[in-house]
Structure formats: structure tokens, C-alpha cells
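Here's my example:
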Amino acid sequence: MSEQELLQAGISALKANDKERAASIFSQLVRQYPHSEGGWYLLGMSLDDAQKRAYCFERALNINPNNPDAKKQIALLYPPAPVPPAPAFATPEPGVIHVPAFLEEEAELEEFPEDPQPEPESAPQAKPPAKTPKRKKNNNVVIIAAAIGGFCILALTAAFALNMLFNNGNTTASQPPAPASTSTPAIVIGGETATATPEPPTSLPTAAPTVAYTPQFEETPCQFDTPFGVRVTCGYAILPENRTSANGRTIRLAVAVFHSQSSSPKPDPVIFLQGGPGGEAISLSVNAYSILVAPFLEDRDYIAYDQRGTGLSEPALVCDELEKANRQDVYGTIDSSSRELVYQYAFLSCAGLLQSKGIDLSAYNTVENAADLKDIVKLLGYEKVNLYGASYGTRLGLVAMRNHPEVVRSAILDSVMPVESNWVNEYPNIANYTLTTLFESCKADPGCNAAYPDIETVFWDLAGRLDESPITLSTSAYPMGTVTETIDGSYLLSIVMGLSKATWFINTVPQTIYRVRDGDYSTLIAAQYSLPYGFEGINTGLYISVMCREHVLDTTPEQLASATNQLRVKDFIWRPFYENLEKMYSACKTWGSSGPVLGEKDAVVSDIPSLIITGTFDSATPPQLGRQAAENLANSFYFDFPNQGHVPTVSDDSGCAMQIALEFLKNPLIEPSRDCMTQLPPVKFLVPYTGNPAIELERQNFNGVSLTVPPDWSYVDNGFLWRGSSSFDITQVTAFRAPISVEDLVDYFSSSINGYRGFDGAPSPAGTRQANGHSWTLYYTTSNGRPVDVAAVDDGGSSLVIVMFSHPDEHDALYRAVFLPMVDSAR
């Protein structure tokens, strides 16, 4: 059995109060997997003998010294004796508990290799990085914007990455609720409960002592295909891991300089500050070269670097255990009763593994990131740069403007997260702003208001209903396998917030709410195809380190509880933390994080020329945060794009936002023209097709069949014509000839052994139709609950078939306007 299977079997035995069986299972687990932190801990919980229990808990601590539950159990077993006053000049030795091995297979256990200890750090040596596989270019704007807004993907569970990595334990209505208590104490991340309110910050950041160091740059071959005709210089900046520590540990930050096409480029390049935190800047710049990089190269160099802990930089703070737990959960291989434990131990294991490598997780923060930026600028020989920050990159840019203004000429800050803001405390207000903006915009749109009346009430009623009775949605996402998710009010909120964040999906929000209410889960199904890739492009370790230090631990458990209570859904989902906001605090404590120092979170006051760009519908960094930052930037210009979501410089198809950014760079002290903003079209919300206006059809030869079809629908690789009103639109038609009879064809689709070939059930006869000398048989079935119409007729030894997939709220109109005319015209 696998480690996961043994773990689940043991937990089930514990829940059944069968400690003897549980101990046997966990004993087998630690024999097979001696480095299983959860196995050792739960084995200890299964035993009664104090010495044996302590031995297990010590083994768990050897694997992860920060496991608070193991520490707590040892403290309960061996309470500290009163400590007498130490004699003068005496140095007390730490007490050590020695516990003998105890299992029947004691000899075998003693043969297990000891947990490896990190080797002493040696002086940094220049070495070429390992060659990584080359990546195929992909300039898909939706993917690019999602990558830039990685922080929001994880925080808001955005569209196409809507995975509740730590869901709230809701089960389907058909499953019995979990018992209120078990024989095993609940395992909670973090034993302590802090109640102290953080001291108010000072007006300026507290200067931390910096150890003297000499930055180095090592040029290396680029680990990617460089764009045609563009000269790119690649290498590593070798910098201290912690500038306040004299331990000598260094990190290697991957850097790529895309050189200007100009024969006399400006001396101040653009340096891109990626979002996340934890996003990969270099791979994104390569894959999105035409959107992110090329616009700047006419006049300037463009610098991309992978921030500490990310991408090609070393070390990369990757959390394989969390990603593994996510995939297992997505594929439904984790029992709901053990989901909490699986995720908690994945979280703890990630921290323990990173720390066992000697990594100082407290050094992975925005202040150190900003110091890295300053060193990179100097190492590359530039005096000043123009910052281009997106999402979390704006926060990094603001800190650089405050701490290292000598290297900053100007700043483009797109989708701003101010330094002083606390996202977890502000999330209820952000959610309320987003929902209000969406609902009011729908009411102001006559078509939307008519199709989706009283949208606000419908949304909250639906969220409450899903919290009361969650549903389970499973999708066969070939070739990945079946993806299963529990849909409750929190999930619905995350869907809506994610759709609003992405400019291309804003117009689908009212439609999605009504369709989910009526049982059409098209948006949710589309999102499930991307669930296994929720961590793609994000280094989870850095994300956790930054979010813990600068948001979670910048508040108190009481404030987190208050924020949770302000939401009108049952729980708030923010992966990779478990359940609600209150539990984040103790989770971050176990990570080894500490809160910000005095002054670190003060608002940035600067006269550096700045361009502030926001999107009205942005659910991650809404406009009020951009205005908040602008109030303290004396030479700033504020632009709010009324039809945009997150990162308008990338998502604005008109190019207006990027045009304004380029104009700003030419002279940052002069406000760019706003003329192009007057041409921006308003958001046009999607509404169901009702038959008006009529759809014009055009005769085409399609898959060997001549018939009339909508000429503006897109041909897709599977032989269908797709309407494509949005990424979630499943409306499509096809026609083809099959070398079998209609009877055999229907039998083929009617056999459950074939899984109905994507249908929910066998096609049922729905009538006949005479056209062009043919007597067609009409059939009806569904796919994922959505209508499928089929027309078939025998035609000279083969069968002629026409198929249409549609949404329930448009089926009747499309049946009359598209499907029947296709049948009538086919020959």
C-alpha cells in the first residue's frame, strides 16, 4: 500500500477507536516510509505507553522540527521541572529526553538511516546552472494575465484555477455528516494562540543592521529559446540570503536582459516585477514576449529576474507535498474525513523540508526582494531603472521606491497592492465592492437586467442554499482523470470573484450565477479542467512566506475572526491555508514566519514619478487600493479602466493601457493623454439567445456534408463549429457521415459499457422530420445535464448525422434558429 493509503487506513481505525489496529497500520507505515512525519506522529497517538509515545513524537520532530503537535505531546508527557536559579557564571545545559526504541521490529527500525542533517555552508562557487527543458512560446493573453496575478489565483481561486485547495470539509447531501468528536484529538496546525495586538508602526521603516557583502554576477547561457532577432544576456546575481545575518549563506537569482532594438537606447531600462508572490518572471517574459517585452524594446532594455525563491533562482521554494495533496484531492483520492490531516501535514512537511536544507524562510520577504532589485541594477551597470510592477509586483515596487530611491527613475504600478494594506483583513470589503460593482453594472445594462432580474438576491440565496446543501461535481477531464469538487457558498463566491478579476470573463458573471441556480454548471465544469494545475507557475513556499509575514501575521486572530464573520458565506477559502481566516494565524506560526518589523508596513511617501493603473472590476486589487497608494505619491497619475479587471496593461485588448504606459516613460513628469480611454467599450454582459435577432446561415461543405451553418462560428479541431460567446460556451454543432447504419450508430451511443460516449444516457427518439427527400429521426439526450440534439438518416449505405450541444436557457431558440435549418438543408 502507498503511504497515503496506509495513512488513511490508520486514521479510519483511530476514528473507530481501534487503537490496536491503528498502531499496527502506522507501524507498517513507518517501516515502509521511515520519513513519514504524519506516520510517526499518529503512531504515537495510537499508543498508551509514555516512552513509546515520546519516541514516536521525537521521530516526527526529527523530520520536521516545527511540528507543534509533536512538541505539545512531548510537553504533556514530560512537563518541565521547576528550574532553580542558575549559579553565577554557570551555563546550564539543555535537557535531553532519551527514549529507547520499542517496536517488536526494533532491530529493523534501528537500521533506518538517520535523518540527513544539512551540510555546513561553504563559500559560494560559480557554477553553470543545470539546463532546463526549453519551453514553447505561448502568447495567450488570458494565461499571461493569470500568471501575473498569481497572488490572486491562489487567494481568490480565480477562473480556470478555481480549486479550493483547502476546502471546508462539506460533504454532499447524500453523505452522513462527520461525527462531532472522535477518539483521537483533533490535530490543529499551531498550538499557540496569540492575542497581542501588533504595535503601531513608526513613520519610517526601522533600519535593520546589514552585514557587509559583495554582490556578484555570473553570466551564463540562457535556459530558453531567445526571441528571433533579439539579443538576450542571462546570468545569476549571487547575493546574501539574509542581509542581517553573518552566516554567509547566498542565493542565486536568475536574470535575463532583453536588449533594446535601438542603436542608442535610453540609459534607464524597464525592470519587470512579477506578481504572485512567487510568480516566475523570466518564463512569463519569454512566453509573453510580444505583450510584455517587445513594446519597451524600441527605446529601452527590459530586465526580468526571478525573485528569490522563484523560477530559475536558487533555491526555489517548491512545496511538492502541497502540490501532491492538491492533485490527490482534485482526483478524489483523499477521504473527506482525513482531508484536513493530509493538508496540514503537507503544509508542515513543506516547511520542515525547506528548513532542513538550511533555508531561512524569514528572509523571503518584500524588503529583501527590494534589496535584491537594487543590487541587480548595480551589478548590470545601470544607474536608474523604470519599475514595471504588476499585482504583488506593485508592492515590491513601492518598497523599492522607499528603501532604494536612488535606483528608481519612475514606476508603472499596474493593479496596486499598497504596502500598508492587509489583504486578509480587507477581503470582506474587497468582496463587497466587487459584488456591488457587478450587480449595479448588470442593473444598469437593460439587457442584463431583463435577463437576470434581482441578481443580488439570486446570488445570496444561491450561496446560502449551497452552504446548506453542498453539491458534488465530478468531471471526466481527459486525459487527467475524474476531477471532483464540493460546491458550496464559498466556492460560488470564489468563482464570481475570479471571473470578475479576469477581464475576459467579467461579462459572464450574471449568466453564471443564474445558470448555476438552474443546474447548468458549465463554468464550474470548465474550471475543473484546470484544477490539477492550480500551482502552475507559482513557487508556493515564497507565496506562503510573504503572505504570512506581511498579511496574516500583520494582524491578530481576533481580527481574522472578525473578517471571517463579515462574510455571508459559511467559510472563506484561501489556499494553501486550511478552512477559515482564523486558522491562518497558527498555520503561519508553524511556518517559521514572524510579523513585519516596525515601520515596514507604513505607507510609502515618495515624489518619484508614478503611473497608477487599475481596473474597475478587479476583485484582487480594486481601484480604492490604487487611489490609496496614489494619495502618498506626489508625482503620480491615476488611471482607472472602467471595462477592465486585473492588470490592464496586459488584459486591455485595445492596447490603451500599454499605450499610456509607454507615453509615461517618455516623460514621467507629464500626465499621459487619456484620449484612448474615451474609445473603450463598456462591459456588455452576456444574455441568453432568444431567437432575436435571427442568425444568418450560409451554405458550407462541412465534414463532407453540404448544409447551412452560422458563418461566424469557429471551426475547432474536433470537427465542430463552436459559437464561442465566452470561454464557457458549450454551444457547438457538427455534421458527418458514418460508415454504419443509424440503428448501429444509436446502439453504439446507447451502450452504457461505452459510457454513452460523453452523454449522460442513451439518446431517446424525439420525433421525425422530412427534408430534401430524407426522413430524419430526431433524438434527444444530455451531456453534463445540458441538451444534446441529434438528427440521423440512412443515406446510401452510411448514415448522415447532425449534432448540436447547447445550454438549457438557449436550447429552444437555437433548436429553431440553427439545428432544424441544418437538418432541412443537409445533403
The first strand starts at residue 216 and ends at 220. Residues 394 and 446 are 37 Å apart (CA to CA). The first helix runs from residue 3 to 15.
